[in-house]
């Protein structure tokens, strides 16, 4: 029985397909899928979902493996096995804002897509902050006065730069991860092992 892999749609999907190609897989069924959300390849069934839903499908055992950003694992803490890092989806989480600093003097207000990561990060440093949850274009928040600073993903830094913002503090580096359903790892070991092994790369290449 072929295993099922849940893939994060969009940015990570493209990078995962390039990675699969580099590992010798025929990715034609995946690249030619059009708007289909389920595709069968020679080696596995693929389903395409948003990052947090990838984690949910893996947690519930609908998918055996998942390809997801580490930010999703840190934010939602799904009950999955975090198997291995992958050499793409590389970016970092950072606190960013306007160069002249926060407007308010009281408790700092932070806009972010990642309220849990942000709360934990500041709590571990003995600070309490007010969080404003946004779903995207987080860089707008300090510009429009919704928040003092943001916590967001930075890759090239272009979005920050073009909006006149700067990194105030680097929080952590993140990459894509391969996750697994805990039961699948035991029950489908023989079909999953070759697949997982083909995703392994030298630690220093991550
Ligand atoms: N600029 C970036 N550079 C590199 N990796 C990124 C970047 N932005 C996000 N990522 C990583 O890719 C994953 C998917 O990001 P993507 O932007 O495609 O989805 P999303 O944030 O859910 O946005 P959307 O709502 O448009 O689907 C994120 O979870 C993160 O790990
Ligand atoms: O450093 P950069 O290379 O500019 O990349 C960082 C940007 O990419 C992501 O946004 P995305 O494109 O996913 O859009 P969103 O803000 O709507 O989530 C992230 O939230 C930053 O805004």
From TrEMBL:
Enzyme class (EC, first level): transferase
Record keywords: Amino-acid biosynthesis, ATP-binding, Cytoplasm, Glycosyltransferase, Histidine biosynthesis, Nucleotide-binding, Transferase
Membrane-crossing residue ranges in chain numbering: none
Keyword Amino-acid biosynthesis among record annotations: yes
Where the record annotates domain ATP phosphoribosyltransferase catalytic, the positions are 52-198
> Which reaction(s) are listed as its catalytic activity?
1-(5-phospho-beta-D-ribosyl)-ATP + diphosphate = 5-phospho-alpha-D-ribose 1-diphosphate + ATP
Compartment(s) of residence: Cytoplasm
Q: Which GO terms describe its molecular function?
A: ATP phosphoribosyltransferase activity
Source organism, top-level taxon? Bacteria
EC number(s) reported in the record: 2.4.2.17
Q: Pathway, according to UniProt?
A: Amino-acid biosynthesis; L-histidine biosynthesis; L-histidine from 5-phospho-alpha-D-ribose 1-diphosphate: step 1/9
The free-text domain note is:
Lacks the C-terminal regulatory region which is replaced by HisZ.
Described purpose of this protein according to its UniProt entry: Catalyzes the condensation of ATP and 5-phosphoribose 1-diphosphate to form N'-(5'-phosphoribosyl)-ATP (PR-ATP). Has a crucial role in the pathway because the rate of histidine biosynthesis seems to be controlled primarily by regulation of HisG enzymatic activity.
State the oligomer form and interacting partners: Heteromultimer composed of HisG and HisZ subunits.
Q: Which family does it belong to?
A: Belongs to the ATP phosphoribosyltransferase family. Short subfamily.
* Protein name as annotated: ATP phosphoribosyltransferase
Which species is this record about? Siminovitchia sediminis
The record lists the lineage as: Bacteria, Bacillati, Bacillota, Bacilli, Bacillales
């Amino acid at each position: 029985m072929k295993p099922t892999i849940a893939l994060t749609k969009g940015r990570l999907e493209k990078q995962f397909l390039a990675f699969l190609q580099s590992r010798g897989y025929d990715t034609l069924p995946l690249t030619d899928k059009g708007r289909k959300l389920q595709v069968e390849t020679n080696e596995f069934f693929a389903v395409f979902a948003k990052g947090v839903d990838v984690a949910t499908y893996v947690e519930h055992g609908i998918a055996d493996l998942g390809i997801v950003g580490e930010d999703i694992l840190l934010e939602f803490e799904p009950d999955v096995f975090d198997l291995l890092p992958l050499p793409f989806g590389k970016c970092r989480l950072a606190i960013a804002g306007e160069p002249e600093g926060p407007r308010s003097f009281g408790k700092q207000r932070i806009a972010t897509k990642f309220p849990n990561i942000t709360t934990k990060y500041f709590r571990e440093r003995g600070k309490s902050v007010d969080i404003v949850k946004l779903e995207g274009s987080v860089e707008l928040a300090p510009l429009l006065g919704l928040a003092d600073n943001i916590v967001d993903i930075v890759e090239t830094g272009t979005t920050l730069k073009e909006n006149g913002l700067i990194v105030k503090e680097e929080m952590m580096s993140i990459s894509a991860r391969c996750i697994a359903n805990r039961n699948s790892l035991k029950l489908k070991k023989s079909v999953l092992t070759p697949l997982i092994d083909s995703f392994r790369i030298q630690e220093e290449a991550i």
